[in-house]
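dumping this here before i forget
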Amino acid sequence: MKVCGKDIQVQGGLIRIARLKADGFEFLEDPEAALDALRASGIRIDLFTFTQKLPHTSPKYGYAMEWDNVAALPVSTFDHWWTRQINDKTRNMVRRAEKKGVSVREVPFDDALVQGIYAIYNESPIRQGKQFWHYGKSRRSARESSSITTGRTSRASEGKKRPSLTGVFSSARFSATA
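structure:
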């Protein structure tokens, strides 16, 4: 289902919850218009949730909300990230990892990348002592869960170690009754 040019996903049986399919990657410009369109759609939706766009961290809308932590790093191009956003220590760690066989490069979102993601998902059912929730997913499911950012370039790392490149922000998640 499309509302305001965005794909909407509806899940649940007893309580039907709608959200943007690419929630966290795509954002609503006008949540009120989206709510009106959902109400007019004829599909039973009990709750509609959406995330406010970063970097806005003060609540913008008058709906019920809860705070959520988000790890985010704006990356415009690989070159800008490599030369201006990460520090010397991180670049040195990447170079050292490359000497050990890790490859950091831009890759298109294609079948080869999906196959690599699928293989990583299914390496082990247990990660860090807990059941890994991606384990056992089909290739199609791996493609769908990874294709939220289709149209953008994905990063691929091969090997065991890679630097952590994130910042943590607080973001508001809003809920409105549809």
